[in-house]
Design brief:
Layout (H helix, E strand, L loop, with lengths): L1 H7 L20 H15 L4 E2 L4 H13 L4 E3 L6 H6 L3 E3 L7 H11 L4 E7 L2 H16 L3 E8 L5 H12 L5 E5 L4 H13 L8 E4 L1 H4 L7 H6 L4 E5 L6 H17 L10 H18 L7 H10 L2 E3 L4 E3 L10 E8 L2 E9 L3 E3 L44 E6 L9 E5 L4 E5 L1 H12 L6 E6 L3 H9 L5 E7 L9 E2 L7 E10 L14 H22 L10 H14 L12 H30 L3 E3 L4 H7 L3 E4 L2 H9 L8 E4 L2 H10 L5 E4 H10 L4 E3 L4 E2 L3 E5 L6 H13 L2 H11 L7 H4 L21 H34 L1
Parallel strand pairs: 1-2, 2-3, 4-5, 4-6, 6-7, 7-8, 14-17, 14-18, 22-23, 22-24
Antiparallel strand pairs: 8-11, 9-10, 11-12, 12-13, 15-16, 18-27, 19-27, 20-21, 20-24, 20-25, 20-26
Helix pairs in contact: 1-12, 2-3, 5-6, 7-8, 14-23, 14-24, 16-17, 16-18, 16-26, 18-26
Family: Belongs to the glutamate-gated ion channel (TC 1.A.10.1) family.
Function: Glutamate-gated receptor that probably acts as non-selective cation channel.
Membrane topology: Multi-pass membrane protein
Length: 797
């Protein structure tokens, strides 16, 4: 501030003399107010510059407004209501609120999902924590703890507060302290003594703290190894700043020779620009009225290029700082890792124009190797297991119809429960995929599924796990994960013998294409034999009609008998031998397949769709699930008199077999279990209906829900979900219908869906037969031409 006043009073500004009265409030708000009142009364100052905290500013602003004296404050942020209450208050420092987005971007880059905040118990910190919470929420990061420290904390209180963080699983700490270096130094020394600056810990400091890092004692810097910091960034390459920095270092080192770092911080640069703005306003011509209000108006019209960039007080405050430097404390100082710019992302440290920089969304993409506390060779995962962490309470149903999903065993002596089953195993697999430690405790609930979900709304449970259907009437009470099962309502129906057309049963062993291929190949083979043998056999001669009839007869009778025709050529014999081999293979296969069709029963569903049930006016059943009954009556329009409720799957299958009901409706996962047990005589009809499926329920707005949903997706993609389902189905012993119905009348097996054989079953044999016949024909034609040529030569001679 003294340098700004001196620089302004150059030969061109001899008419303006700035008298500066400097007092030190030592960070005490009451002392700042008393000093301000003293300056107004005794020194009759024209303006007040310098309160650095909001607590000081709020008291001094009252005095400044009462005396109509402009107050240029260096507090980080000023509430909107304050500008209305104290119109002479101007925020001279740029807003650093965007730093919270930078911190959230850093946390997101390393896939940390939980954060604890350490801050001062002062009014200004509340707004900063709210800003950080908003920024974290936008990147799906949960703020789990906020520890507030009194400005003058003693070591025992600090130890107690840090111990409360140490025993919890979260290991990512954001430190937001004011410019009070004493509390910051004490905090990190205590944390080092408590071994909280070792492996697996992450510490991130905000601008107000990081920008004063160079003023800390070397012992504090030594305790902060691996800490990540964010501080305001401005271009330091301008000639004007270079000149200021050089003179500042010379003057500061002369006044404080014991200090090792003489670089000006952003606080010094903003103070320089604030005094320069005040001097420019005092030089500006006054209007007719004059007075202090005139000075305030001239300050608000101020617009010039300062050391930090353009200086302009819009709505009584300076502009926002949008670029921050990310640093890493190493050795006796720190290394710059890169820059973060609001609206763009991370970039490398640049000495030129930021407009030419390349930006990335993740800190990992551009920044070099980060030294973490304890110097591990890996990146911290942000959490560690904590045995004393309070677990979330998860309700599980005791009335599950299928124990394969949820099976609970109660221990009355120990007053504990043990749970197992498909849903329980899946939840445990999902928890293993979470990027943080999540302690949980299962508690049995003896009631309906609707009541179980309502217990979450009543805050008796944090979540519910089991075969819980996602239906509309449960959504007001809880939020659900994505369904982890197939979302279909199906109907199990009996199998019956498939009806076939007996008149054309003889054609079923082969497909139509195979019949056509046999016909063509027989005609071709008959033609080849006829062509070769016609010169040697009188029966193969005569009129065209006679020869065609003989050739066709030869094509098919050869398949069954070869009596009455004596072959004279080895070529025709060669073709016929292969032809007869093919005929033998085809006839034997035909006989075997036809026998199979006649003796093995072919089964099909007795019911194809709900329309056929309704046309027959048949009864249907469903397992005791409220929403299924509602769906059957309101959506599928079944009469309530035709719908029967079952509490036992065995009872429903018995009635289905005996014809009491035509179909049983249930969710597809349940149907798979039933069909794995009663594996003969029943099947799932092709028609199905979309429903919500099964999911896990969480309290509305629960921070765990998006993470568990994401974990379920990972379990699915890794194949673990499929393995769990296969194990569940395989654990069911196929007992057929004998055990269920007490008889042996059930039909076994499902038969082949298509018993007809196609051309692909004989294609190699057909190629061999056709190839042999073709080869014989070609050799015959070649020798016939040679004989014709020899006969012609004899005639010439």
């Amino acid at each position: 501030m003294q340098m700004a006043a001196k620089d302004f009073q150059d030969p061109a500004n001899q008419s303006l003399v700035l008298d500066m009265y400097i007092t030190d409030s030592k960070g005490e708000p009451l002392q700042a107010a008393l000093s301000a009142q003293e300056l107004v009364n005794s020194s009759q100052v024209k303006a007040i510059v310098g309160p650095c905290s909001w607590e000081e500013t709020s008291l001094v602003a009252q005095i400044a407004t009462k005396n109509q004296i402009p107050l240029l404050s260096f507090a980080d942020s000023t509430p909107r209501w304050a500008r209305e209450r104290w119109p002479f208050l101007i925020q001279a420092s740029s807003s650093k609120s965007a730093q919270m987005k930078a911190i959230a971007a850093i946390i997101q880059s390393w896939n940390w999902h939980q954060v604890s905040v350490i801050t001062e118990d002062v009014e200004s910190s509340t707004k900063a924590v709210l800003q950080l919470s908003t920024a974290l929420r936008q990147v799906n990061v949960q703020l789990v703890d906020v520890i507030t420290l009194p400005p003058s904390s003693n070591p025992s209180l600090l130890s107690h507060q840090l111990e409360s963080l140490k025993v919890r699983p979260c290991r990512v700490f954001v430190v937001h302290l004011s410019s009070s270096t004493a509390l910051a130094e004490q905090l990190f020394r205590t944390a080092m003594d408590m071994k909280m600056l070792e492996r697996d810990y992450v510490w991130i400091t905000t601008h107000a703290f990081t920008s004063l890092l160079h003023t800390f004692h070397p012992s504090t810097i030594s305790a902060m190894q691996g800490v990540i910091g964010v501080k305001g960034h401005f271009r330091e390459t301008k000639p004007r700043y270079q000149s200021f920095s050089k003179r500042f270092r010379r003057r500061f080192s002369s006044a404080h020779p014991d200090e090792s770092n003489h670089e000006p911080s952003i606080f010094a640069v903003e103070a320089y620009d604030a005094v320069w703005a005040l001097a420019l306003s005092l030089l500006r011509p006054s209007n007719v009225t004059g007075g202090q209000e005139d000075l305030l108006n001239k300050l608000l019209l101020c617009n010039f290029n300062g050391l930090v960039g353009n200086v302009q007080f819009t709505v009584q405050k300076a502009g926002s700082l949008n670029t921050f430097e990310v640093i890493n404390v190493i050795g006796k100082s720190y290394n710059g890792l890169g820059l973060w710019t609001d609206g763009h992302g991370f970039s490398e440290n640049t000495v030129g124009e930021e407009e030419t920089a390349t930006y990335f969304s993740s800190m990992r993409d551009i920044m070099g190797h980060v030294i973490w506390p304890g110097r591990p060779r890996y990146s911290p995962k942000g959490w560690t297991p904590s045995p004393i962490s309070e677990p979330i309470i998860i309700g599980i149903p005791t009335e599950s119809i299928f124990k394969q999903f949820v099976d609970i065993e109660l221990d009355p002596v120990q007053n504990t429960i043990s749970a197992k089953g498909y849903a329980i195993d899946l939840f445990e697999k999902a928890v293993e995929q979470l990027p943080f430690y999540l302690p949980y405790e299962f508690r049995a609930f003896n009631g309906t599924y609707n009541a179980l979900v309502q217990q979450i709304y009543l805050k008796n449970f944090d979540a519910a796990v089991g075969d819980i259907a996602i239906v509309t009437n449960r959504l007001p009470y809880a939020d659900f994960t994505h369904p982890y099962t197939e979302s279909e309502l199906v109907m199990i129906v009996p199998l019956q013998s498939k009806k076939v057309n007996r008149a054309w049963l003889f054609t079923k062993p082969f497909t139509g294409s195979l019949w056509l291929l046999i016909f063509i190949l027989n005609i071709y083979n008959g033609f080849v034999v006829w062509m070769i043998e016609r010169d040697h056999c009188l029966k193969l001669r005569g009129s065209i009609g006679n020869q065609v009839g003989v050739m066709l007869s030869l094509s098919f009778t050869t398949l069954f008998t070869f009596q009455g025709l004596k072959l004279h050529s080895n070529l025709s014999r060669m073709a016929l031998v292969v032809w007869l081999f093919m005929a033998l293979a085809i006839t034997q296969t035909y006989t075997a397949n036809l026998s199979s069709i006649l003796t093995v029963p072919k089964l099909e569903p007795a019911i194809d769709n709900v329309e056929s049930i309704q046309m027959r006016r048949a009864n249907i059943g469903y397992l005791k699930v409220t929403y299924v009954a509602k769906y059957l009556e309101e959506v599928l329009h079944f009469s309530p008199k035709k719908v029967k409720e079952y509490t036992s799957p065995e009872d429903s299958m018995r009635d289905l077999h005996e014809g009491v009901i035509a179909a049983v409706f249930m969710e597809r996962p349940w149907a798979k279990i039933l069909l794995a047990r009663y594996c003969t005589g029943f099947t799932i009809a092709k028609q199905s209906f979309k429903v919500g499926g099964f999911g896990f329920a969480f309290a509305k707005g629960s921070p765990w829900l998006p993470y568990v949903t994401e974990a379920l997706v990972k379990v699915t993609e890794s194949g673990q979900l499929r393995d769990l389902e296969i194990d569940m189905i395989a654990s069911q012993k196929c007992v057929g219908n004998d055990e269920l119905l007490g008889d042996s009348s059930s039909e076994a097996g499902y038969g082949s869906s298509n018993p007809s054989l196609g051309a692909d079953s004989f294609w190699m044999l057909f190629v061999f037969t056709a190839g042999t016949s073709t080869l014989a024909l070609l050799m015959f034609m070649y020798w016939s031409e040679d004989e014709l040529y020899d006969s012609s030569s004899s005639v010439v001679k």
